[in-house]
Amino acid sequence: MVLLLVVAYQGGYIFSDEDSSESTSMNEPLEESEQSNSLDEIHPLAATCLSHGELTRHDHMYLTIQIEDQLVTIPENIGVNTNTCNEAGANMHVVHTHSADGKLHLEMQTEEDVELGVFFDVWGQHFDETGIFSYRVNSTHELVMYNRDVNGTLEEVDSFDKYVLLNNQDIIITYRERV
Q1: Is the separation of the CB atoms in 97 and 77 below 8 Å?
Q2: Per-residue pLDDT, 127
Q3: Cα separations (Å) of 138 from 60, 125, 157, 178?
């Protein structure tokens, strides 16, 4: 019985008075065990591997991510030669990067919609309406997303990970203090 109580306490199921008086800063990322994760259900397209051959779609879009006042560098080669996609002739995920400039490559051998969440699943990062990476929406912080059109006009988007990727989009995701 004592062992069961210890395990329950360590697992966060039982709180002491000391635990309840502690507070976590609202603008600090939560520990991995304290947060929901959009990676619980990986989109099937995130596991699809392909090569440059026989493509029916090859689109490009740009993704900018800002956390507070800091721009996030989206690494090069996300989704290229991964543990899942590493075979000769099929070494890329449907959405991937080649450079660290935020340019996403969407390549398909079919004509179906691909959501932005597929890229984050491939990257192995959390992104949905609850937050991005380890940053969560709360009483002091919000997550906003925009698409900038060819005229430079920003249109707010509220579909987040469900946002359908199209050629020449300029997607901006910002985690910031509520305004």
Answers
A1: yes
A2: 97
A3: 32, 19, 19, 9
Structure-token match 């691909």, residue found: 114
State how far the Cα of 148 lies from the Cα of 141, in Å rounded to an integer. 22
AA letter at 155:
E
pTM value is 0.78
Yes or no: say if 68 and 176 are a contact pair by the CB < 8 Å rule: yes
Between CA 110 and CA 44 the distance in angstroms is 14
Between CA 33 and CA 18 the distance in angstroms is: 19
Q: Stretch 141-163: mean pLDDT, rounded?
A: 95
Tell me 80's DSSP state.
Answer: B
* Whether pLDDT at 144 is above 90: yes
Interior CA angle at 120 toward 30 and 57, to 5°? Answer: 170
pLDDT value of residue 38: 59
Contacts of 3 (CB under 8 A, 6+ apart): none
Average pLDDT of every residue of the chain: 83
What is the distance between the alpha carbons of residues 92 and 142, in angstroms, rounded to a whole number?
33
Question: What pLDDT digit, counting tens, does each position of 38-50 carry?
Answer: 566 899 999 999 9
Residues 6+ apart with CB under 8 A from 128: 38, 117, 160, 161
pLDDT at 141: 98
Domain layout of the chain by residue ranges: 35-177
